[in-house]
Design a protein that fits this description.
By secondary structure, the chain is α/β, with parallel strands linked by helices. About 40% of the residues lie in helices and about 15% in strands. Helix 6 packs antiparallel against helix 9.
Length: about 350
Amino acid sequence: MRKISTDTLWDLAAAEVQNRNSDTSEDHGGGGDGAVSQRTVFIVGSKTGGKTSILLRCLDRDEATKPTLALEYTFGRRARGHNTPKDIAHLWELGGGTSLSDLVQIPITPLSIRSLSLILVLDLSQPNRLWKTMETLLQAAHTQLGKACSQTQAHAGAKHQASSFQPAARVLPKDYPDRELLSPFPVPLLIIGSKYDLFMELESDKRKVVSKTLRFIGHCYAASLIFTSTKSELQMSKTKSFFNHLAFGLERGKSVSFDSSKPLVIPSGSDSFIQIGSPPTSGVDIGSLHAKSPLDLWKKVYESVFPPESISENKELKDPAKDPQYSEPQVDSMRAQKDQELQQYRRNAAKSWKELELDT
């Protein structure tokens, strides 16, 4: 019997699915003729940034959106042609903004990284929180990808080790702009700037700072970048094209837009540092910023325009056990009974300690 390196029920189930589909592809979630492709898309981003709404629209699901509870899973299916098996996209959505970033370890595993893509949704209407959200979530995902890769290499047999997935070794095409200057994100990355309709209410100069900064970040990580609003059918259609490219391997649309007065649409490999230019330093003395790297310089310039806000998302999280939308009468009544028993136990324990103190 072949030994399985995982030790949780979830990992065992995932390993079984992986084994059953091990012959479907040797590429990123690919699949030969008639074979079913399975890809994983992990969606993270700003709290209340519209992640769920965007996901439902991309899946053509007419459902009422609800706040994402911690980490939620769904899936999508799509046929590549008539009378062909439907490809499957495993879709994970992280709620809570940055407060639950530790949960990235659940979707990002040694079993998922070969077919994994990341979507980062940033709320354009909250520019003061944008950089911190981006930085925290990308760092958490990058760290977990490194751990998953190490686990793969440690547990893989000699046959698989030579072809094991290595996030740090993501190779860009030789003609990719600024190829030698970039730090490609370990897996395909799509950055979505959401709530573009509200973003347009900002001053023109401030919109340029946000647009230019996200272009620089996207290019640094060899990511695609698109601005969108769920209130615009045209913008959502373009967003859906990017989503389907990651989830089902379909071709992306050919739309490209670098104009900061319009929604940005920049597929990976379309931008360059020359096109982006230098940081928008109006009123900022670059020499006084003492930046350690180009990315750090852009961060300091950005935060001089949009001072970071304190994000107290941990305190804002609600107890799902008290949320009416998740009510379960039988479970809730038993929970209330156990809470009363716990309180009674604590009172009795406190009395016992006081009596013990008096005796001594």
